[in-house]
Amino acid sequence: MFHHSHSVSETEAIAAELARTLVGGECIALDGDLGAGKTQFVRGLVRGLGGQPRTVSSPTFVLLNIYDTGRLPVYHLDAYRTHGPDDFEAIGFAELLEQGGVVALEWPRRVAEVLPDKVIHVRFEILSRQCREIQIARP
Amino acid sequence: MVNHAMPLILGIESTCDETAAAVVVDGYRVLSNVIASQIDLHAKYQGVVPEIASRAHIENILPVIREAIHNANTSLDQLDAIAVAHRPGLIGSLLIGVTAAKTLAFALNKPLIAVDHVHAHLYSVVLETNIVPPMPAVGLVVSGGHTALYHLQDLTTVRLVGSTLDDAVGEAYDKVASILGLGYPGGPVIDRLAATGDPKAVPFPRSMLGRQSLDFSFSGLKTAVLYHVRGYQGRQRPVTSLSPQKIADVAASFQAASIDVLSRKLHRALSQTNAKSVIIGGGVSANRGLRLATAQFPVPVFFPLPAYCTDNAAMSAGLAHLAFLRRDFASLDLDAITYSRFRLT
User: Are B320 and B119 in contact (CB under 8 A)?
Assistant: First the structure.
């Protein structure tokens, strides 16, 4: 499924729509360049699940943020600073997948080897300053 | 041998990528301040690598504590308390400092004091100077992991009044340095380059988030730098197409935009409170551009001495002095906690 977003709020709305279909246990891989809207997308997921979008911030430095929402907890991870699967496993990625919440992972290509079989791939393409293409591929 | 009628406190810090220990007497006299910098290890990987950070903490923690005790010309049995920054940070890293502190406190039968790392950054201006800024004060903690504004009624009574909605300012510096091919960490190199560039060369956006907001957003600024350097199609133009002068101009313009936002938010916080001073701590408080921009503030602005801007254990040992005086001790089942005790309500 392809979407086009022309603003931060449109990106959030696309994510909120995806959130409504989540039942728990999903892993969402957010793949796109710096500034493509990956963290904004997670803000939309949290909003769509009934949580506080205000609590969402970049996990680049802290590696893992956890958001409680009305429905499902969201585990927001970032592999930007890790240099491989071993490092990444050290923050407990495998355990997080088993929690029955939603795992949202930025920079998944850096840890492609440890991704589960069933992943919702969200790919961001910067088409222009005002437009991103967001492709959502379900397993 | 140190003569200490005043409390002698060992501080331990391992919240992120620095293992550090320090001995502070009377809350401000720093007898030793040891930091096992892991910057070389991390430069290879452009940032904080959790597994490497925890492993390095394990290897460093005991030598660092020994060195801190030795440099202070004291001994473990002379200590009055053991302080540790137990929040916020990376869980694997925090646990090593917390475990070391609890073990020492138990083995030596000394009180254990738990400190919040960002609170300690605000306290760091007192170290060595023994100057307590006029209160109430507005506090700003700026680093790779934190960008937040506080209201301080006194050095103990602190309230969070605003924080970043996305990236921390230090993280923006790191990512912009990466976009410009300048390596890690980004803060010092951009600060240095900015001095040779034109801050007005590129009008990067200043995200103010509405008229009253004390929150920050640096994600849009980072994206604007990316567009400017690589063109609007993301990856089309390599950074190598920019001349050294153009790179310096981008660095100067980025720094001007980030510092402008920080100082305007500080002005806003001052106008919304009756604060009599400003306290700025954290790694980005070493930034020369920030220090210049705040030189003309209507109230005095307090920065830590350079040694206490980035993560260190002296600030934790210093802050623990206040808890020691209140006899506010932690129990030996103290937990490591990933988030700060200051949250927006």
Answer: no
Point out the residue among A56, A61, A128 whose CB comes nearest to the CB of B145: A61
Which of B72, B44, B73 lies closest to B56 in space, CA to CA? B44
Q: β-pairing, B19-25 with B8-13?
A: antiparallel
Q: How far is A59 from chain B (nearest CA, A)?
A: 8
Q: Which residues of A touch B16 (CB under 8 A)?
A: 61
**Overall CATH class of domain A2-137:** alpha beta
Name the pTM for this structure. 0.86
Q: Are A45 and A102 in contact (CB under 8 A)?
A: yes
B170-to-A128, B67, B148, B214, B293 alpha-carbon distances in Å: 27, 30, 12, 18, 17
Kindly give the confidence (pLDDT) of every residue in chain B, 345 residues in length, as a single tens digit, with 9 standing for 90 and above.
444 468 999 999 999 888 999 999 999 999 999 998 755 555 655 555 555 667 788 888 999 999 999 999 999 999 999 999 999 988 888 999 999 999 999 999 999 999 999 999 999 999 999 999 999 999 999 998 899 999 999 999 999 999 999 999 999 999 999 999 998 889 999 999 999 999 999 999 999 998 899 999 999 999 999 989 887 654 556 666 789 999 999 999 999 999 999 999 999 999 999 899 999 999 999 999 999 999 989 999 999 999 999 999 999 999 999 999 999 999 999 999 988 999 876
In the numeric block, the tokens 């623990």 are attached to B320
Query: In chain A, what are the domain boundaries?
Result: 2-137
Q: What is residue A106's three-state secondary structure?
A: strand
Helices (H) and strands (E) in chain B, counts: 10, 10
- B286: its two tokens: 């070493």
ipTM field: 0.73
DSSP string, B123-143: HGGGTTT-PPPPSSEEEEEES
Q: By the CB < 8 Å criterion, does A54 face chain B?
A: yes
- Of the partner residues A58, A61, A83, the one whose CB lies closest to the CB of residue B45: A83
The structural domains of chain B, ordered by start, are 8-124+308-325 (3.30.420.40), 134-304 (3.30.420.40)
